[in-house]
Each structure stands twice: as C-alpha cells, then as structure tokens.
Write a structure and sequence with these properties.
Number of strands: 0
Number of helices: 3
Shape: rod-shaped
Length: about 120
C-alpha cells in the first residue's frame, strides 16, 4: 500500500515537472516573439529614416537648382516610398478598415417603403 502511494507521488512530481517545463517553454517562446517584434520595429524605424533621408536629399537637390533627370527623380522617389514603412502601414490599415466595414444593404424591393 505504501509503495502505491510512493508511485502516485512520483507521477505527481513528474506531472508537476512537465507542467513547469511547458510553462518555461511558453515563457521563452513569448520572450522570443517580443524580441522579434522589437527587431522588426527597429528595422522599420531604420527604413523610415532612410526614406526620409532620400526625400531630404531630393528636396535639397531641387532647392539647389540641380537639373535632375525626371526618370531618375521618379526612381529615387519610388525607392524612398518603398523603404518607408509608413506607406505600407497606412495601406494595410486602410485595407483592414475596408474589410471590417459593414456594407450597406440595398433596400428590399419587395418591402414597401411606407407602411400602409
């Protein structure tokens, strides 16, 4: 009888260890997710700064009266736009907003507009 109690206690301890291990693994997974989000934020901030730097440079060229070929200017502006995460974020938010908007239904043709 004592031996059965000992084995039950052993199983209980093993179950507790497994639970603790799962909790530790989950905490590690969450911490890694947080670190990845931080790295992504830093990359976005750096890309935003690069886009802003290109735009300031193009503005300075224009202010200095530099004759910049239109094709090159269009390309350089596209590079700045591509780097800038704000444009991507704003488009994503607009798309999400459009998806979440409830479309208005047309009036029911069979239903009279004024009740009798």
């Amino acid at each position: 009888m004592k031996q059965r109690g000992i084995w039950e206690k052993v199983r209980e301890i093993e179950n507790e260890r497994a639970t603790v291990k799962q909790a530790q693994e989950e905490a590690e997974r969450l911490a890694e997710n947080e670190r990845e989000k931080e790295r992504q934020l830093l990359r976005e901030a750096q890309d935003w700064e690069a886009g802003q730097t290109i735009r300031r440079y193009l503005s300075a060229l224009s202010a200095a009266g530099e004759k910049v070929p239109g094709e090159w200017l269009t390309w350089a502006e596209a590079v700045a736009d591509r780097l800038d995460p704000l444009g991507k974020r704003l488009k994503l938010l607009a798309d999400l907003s459009a998806q979440n908007a409830t479309p208005t239904e047309p009036p029911d043709q069979d239903r009279p507009t004024n009740p009798p």
